[in-house]
Amino acid sequence: MKVLAVGFGRLWTAQTVSSFGDGVMAAALPLLALTLTRDPMALAVVTAAGTLPWLLFGVLGGALVDRWDRRRTMWVADAARALLLAVPAVAAAADMLSIPLLAAVAFLLGLGGLFFDTAATAYLPDLLGRDPARLQRANSRLRGAQTAMAGFAGPPAGSALLALGRSVPLLADAVSFVVSALLVRSLPAMPRPVPEARESLLRQARAGASYVFRDRLLLGLALRPAVGNVAFMAVETVLALFVHERLGLGTFGFGLLLTAEATGGLIGAGIASFLGRKLGTGTALTCTAAVEGLAILVLAAAPNPYVAGLALAVCGAGMGATMVLGPSLRQTIVPAHLMGRVASTSRMLAMCAAPFGAFLGGWLAASFDVRTPLFAAAFLLLTMTAVTATMTSNRRVEAALRGVAPTGDPARPGPEEPVRESVPELL
User: Fold this and answer.
1) How far apart are the first and last CA of the chain?
2) Which of 84, 229, 353, 389 is 20 to 30 A away from residue 360, measured at CA?
């Protein structure tokens, strides 16, 4: 239906604008902290505060999203984050900024992001009729926009806006949230999932987590980003040092290598649907995971910056494709009433793994040399590929897709839920 095409366009625009604001803050927040202190631990606190909500409230947040109207959850989260940013903006204008304030703002922004991202993940399959091909194309566009805005356009803009005044990037991010909230507010309403028997929030959260761990396909889809985050954080922790010591590049060269990785990510997101059609989603996921591991192995042994840049671009392409194929499959096969909890459980596992990867990378570099974390990361990625290959095989994926009811939810629609017409070609 045409209204659904318009709805996805608005959602895509909203997330593109919001991703630009995220990129602005990704550059501005640490730079703002740097104007207040040179203490590495204080700077780390500001950075870590943004990830804490996922560690502390990930599964509970998913359970709440499964209780709430998802469209309302998204626009309220965006509106709340816009209002929140007024506090540090005023504090910056009054020269009252502090590290505790920035850490608190980062934490609350992360909490808003938890609710928005989880609700958006649960809303999209309802909007697109849970069609696997359309979900892959939609996630490809969303992922591409996120990479372009948060990875390319946002960070330089954040640095430039900060030069105009400490309040300016904060206000720019607030405006992006306002625009996103207004667009999301205009999205079409989707029927709510069939309500479950009245249970405590904790019991519902536990049910969502156990659903992931009992299903081998969903567990395989969750293990890939979790193990991948250990590996990639181990690499990211020492990458700047590796580039300086082994490749002889300075700050500008390091930035170019990161740009190569982001470019690969855009390409990978763009070809994900093609790979899924040609290889099957399960085989495509196994291939992209293997490509990531082999690319990191090439990076570790790279004799010059050109080989390193190519390796990072290929790794980014594998990551970009994986981050389209995996979520699209999950959105297709998970019952609507569990989508928030399943998505947040998977995201929480990935977020919990990241600090361990950072510690592992630093310890290996200090104990051995700067290339050791890269070799270890490649070993982890290739081992994970072998372990999860059967868990996410084409046979298992096809069996899961056959078990999905026409509405995408095995539960029978409630009497208030209208029968949805087949969705035309939207994307």
Assistant:
1) 12
2) 389
* Residue of 250, 411, 235 whose CA lies nearest to 316: 235
212-238 pLDDT tens trace: 999 999 999 999 999 998 999 889 878
- Region of poorest pLDDT, from 43-47, 139-143, 146-150, 335-339: 43-47
Residue reference for tokens 């974390």: 373
* CATH T-level fold of 207-402: Growth Hormone; Chain: A; (1.20.1250)
The Cα 353–Cα 55 span in angstroms is 10
Rounded to an integer, the average pLDDT of 195-211 is: 80
CATH architecture of the domain covering 2-191: Up-down Bundle (1.20)
pLDDT digits (tens, 9 = 90+) for 90-128: 999 999 999 999 999 999 999 999 999 999 999 999 888
| CA proximity to 332, closest of 281, 288, 385, 289 | 281
What torsion, rounded to 10 degrees, do the Cα atoms 29, 347, 76, 91 define?
-20
3-class DSSP state of 10: helix
Residue listed under structure tokens 């070993």: 379
For residues 303, 308, 310, 311, the Cα torsion angle rounded to the nearest 10 degrees is 100
The size of the chain, in residues, is 427
pTM equals 0.80
- Domain range summary for the chain, segments of one domain joined by +: 2-191, 207-402
The answer to whether 81 touches 358, Cβ cutoff 8 Å, is no
Query: What element of type H or E holds 324?
Result: helix 305-333
Amino acid letter for position 217: L
Alpha-carbon gap, residue 158 to 149, rounded angstroms: 11
